[in-house]
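Course assignment 3, question 2. Fill in each field.
Student: A.L.
Task: Predict the tertiary structure for the chain below.
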Amino acid sequence: MNYNKKSVRDVDVKGKKVLLRCDFNVPQNKETGEITSDKRIVAALPTIKYLLENGAAVIACSHLGKPKGEWKDSLTLAPVAKRLSELLGTQVIFAKDIIGTDAHEKAAALQPGQIMLLENLRFDIREEKNGADFAQELASMAEIFVSDAFGTVHRAHASTAGVAAYLPAYAGFLVEKELSVMGKALDDPKRPFVAVLGGAKVSDKIGVITNLIDKADTIIVGGGMAYTFIKAMGYGVGTSLLEADKVEEAKAMMDKALSRSVMFLLPVDTAISDKFENTDQFLTVDVKNIPDGYMGLDIGPQTVELFTKALKGAGTIVWNGPMGVFEFPAFAQGTKAVAKAMAESGAVTIVGGGDSAAAVEKLGYADKMTHISTGGGASLEFLEGKELPGVACLLDK
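Answer field:
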């Protein structure tokens, strides 16, 4: 896939109406509807300010939650419009619909330097179905499309890909950064290139591992998915997370890594318990000796040492997925150690969104990383080498 896409810098936006796809899918208090973290709104500010300062009239749009085509008052974007107004220090005009009379009238009256926000895109069932009529209607309000919601570029929706059939499409600053940092890491990494993969399931990461075996110098595997590989090596895993139908595939991946001279590191010891809960009553055993009735919940101290050593001399590190059940403080040590080793490595460090990003934030290492991806599913598909519809539709440089 070509990552070299035109950005907002490559087009004159003065006097133009710009349809800007943002990611305003913010967490909210279920009772009050209050936004509990405005990080995603703040992340969109550089692109919004650039467009407004350069004389564009901005028609922002986003989804929120999963209304499945139904109008739900609890998922209105009105609180987002309010918070965005506060952050920009200027009024964000809010449309009470998406492509209805209110939206069209407000878009038609919008002046350069002004911004409006459409109602939740997913209130219309055609958004997720990439309905051509819905995409065309959205596009009809503007002259240029700017994509700045990296978290949704792996979806072929009307507002992420469909509108590009009717408008010239450019990357906003968030998407531009994701493409340049992650694209370079995959196509031309500073070596040695180390990939750290964790999380629960091997099935979620098969595509990533397969793609990275051809690119990385070292692959480190931890988290729940490691036990399927340990099983593939012929050892018992007790009641640890196991995808029995993926054992042969895990073996094939290890064989492929060996044939390519890629170092494939698995845990050598593990913290185990007979219950899935946060407890100080756990044992640490060699991975070859997990007793029946016990489950692995984190990597052990010897593994921490092994993984840390592998990260020390790296040129590029890409991390996706925690090393253990980091939500339980007792089993967050492995994830913490990897985050610390990355922060101190001096390498180009990229954290693929989702749980790894949450862990890095929670552990206080966020500002020590080169790049934390804003998209969980999107960054995973990026690492798999898949074509992302919301990127493929942007104009090539």
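Instructor remarks: The first helix runs from residue 39 to 53. DSSP finds 13 helices and 15 strands in the chain.
Grade: pending
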